[in-house]
Specification:
This is RNase H type-1 domain-containing protein. GO terms for molecular function: nucleic acid binding; RNA-DNA hybrid ribonuclease activity. It comes from Araneus ventricosus. It holds the Pfam family RNase_H. InterPro entries: RNaseH-like_sf (IPR012337), RNaseH_domain (IPR002156), RNaseH_sf (IPR036397). By secondary structure, this protein is of the alpha/beta class. It folds into 2 domains: 121 residues, no CATH class; 139 residues, Ribonuclease H-like superfamily/Ribonuclease H (Nucleotidyltransferase, domain 5). The chain is built from 10 helices and 10 strands. A 6-stranded mixed sheet has the order 9-8-5-6-7-10, sandwiched between helices. The chain has a two-stranded antiparallel sheet with strand order 1-2. Strands 3-4 form a two-stranded antiparallel sheet. A hairpin with a 2-residue loop joins strand 5 and strand 6. Helix 2 runs parallel beside helix 4 and helix 7 packs parallel to helix 9.
């Protein structure tokens, strides 16, 4: 329009701007995710003029945690450390005088493995499959050089040939040991009770080993009587051992923590649909003694003092244990 005034032009320009904004944001006037601004650079926060950068991981006392508080970032860093440690390892492997394999194994276990698995006692203990595979690939570098095998050899075969445990087993074992040690607090008078059951030549026995400040103070050995052991099982011996440990705590009126490697026993005690009369009696007694007794599960591993002691005592109980009788299970009645 020729005769349009300046105010009309300004108004028209403003309308045009509003139209462009509305078209960019959509007909309803709301911004969509497709038109949102993407920040390629992470923002920086300041507190008292100190800049704090946003990071995906954080290193605390040598352990790297990501923003989900997992060890994925820490395990990724181990690969770079592996390349550094391999340099000196290669110098020895490539020498012509063929060093003793026991010497190389000791070097790996005491130097390389310790460097890779720094602080395993505070690791999560439940590694994901991806993290386990990453640890296997890291360990494989040394196993190939140690065993001098073909690159196509399976990692599990290399572990068997070298006699070296898979790398993910070591932090899990250390984590369990740390959890056992952490339970040694004043709340439980530093009394730890380990229980175990076993069956040898149709004889079923179980043991209750009591430790205070890592010192074995008492052992209680039991076995099912001859006419009773026909239908009794390893599972029932584990449950009866837990019950005997709880009875000891009630008699002494002391707080204890019972450790068992029987995951099936823990599951049975937590089950709400148990039909066994003896099992329900054990659950009822443990409920009454919950202020004194806590039952925990641990994975049976070599190196845990209480586990090895109880295993030996349970085998001894099959011959020298005190006879004990419990009613036959429902499955035995025909």
């Amino acid at each position: 329009m020729k005769g349009a005034s300046k105010s009309d032009k300004d108004k028209g320009g403003m309308d045009g701007d509003e139209k462009s904004i509305s078209s960019a944001s959509g007909e309803n006037g709301k911004f969509s995710k497709w038109n949102s601004t993407v920040l390629n650079k992470k923002p920086t926060f300041k507190i008292n003029n100190y800049s704090i950068k946003i990071s995906d991981s954080l290193k605390i006392l040598g352990i790297v945690l990501d923003n989900k508080f997992t060890l994925s970032a820490h395990i990724l860093i181990l690969y770079d450390k592996t390349l550094f440690l391999t340099r000196n390892f290669n110098r020895i492997i490539k020498t012509g005088w063929s060093p003793n394999k026991n010497l190389l194994k000791a070097w790996y276990l005491n130097v390389i493995e310790k460097a890779l698995l720094y602080g395993p006692s505070v690791w999560d203990g439940a590694l994901t499959k991806l993290q386990i595979d990453r640890l296997h690939s890291i360990q494989r570098i040394f196993l190939l050089k140690f065993a001098r095998a073909y690159r196509t050899t399976y990692t599990s075969v290399l572990n068997a040939l070298s006699g070296i445990a898979p790398l993910h087993v070591v932090p899990e074992a250390e984590y369990i040991k740390f959890q056992v040690w952490a339970r040694h607090s004043n709340d439980y008078n530093n009394i730890i009770v380990y229980t175990d059951g076993t069956s040898i030549y149709n004889e079923t026995g179980f043991a209750v080993c009591i430790l205070q400040n890592n010192i074995n103070i008492q052992n209680h050995l039991y076995k099912f009587r001859n006419y009773n052991s026909v239908f009794q099982s390893y599972f029932q011996s584990e449950l009866t051992a837990i019950h005997s440990a709880a009875s000891w705590a009630a008699e002494k009126n002391t707080t204890i923590n019972i450790y068992t490697d029987s995951l099936s026993s823990i599951a049975a005690l937590k089950s709400a649909s148990a039909r066994s009369g003896s099992l329900n009696n054990i659950k009822q007694d443990l409920s009454y003694l919950k202020h004194l007794v806590e039952v925990s599960w641990f994975k049976a591993l070599i190196g845990i003092q209480g586990n090895e002691l109880t295993d030996q005592q349970a085998k001894l109980a099959t011959t020298t244990g005190v006879g004990k009788y419990i009613p036959a299970p429902r499955s035995y009645v025909k």
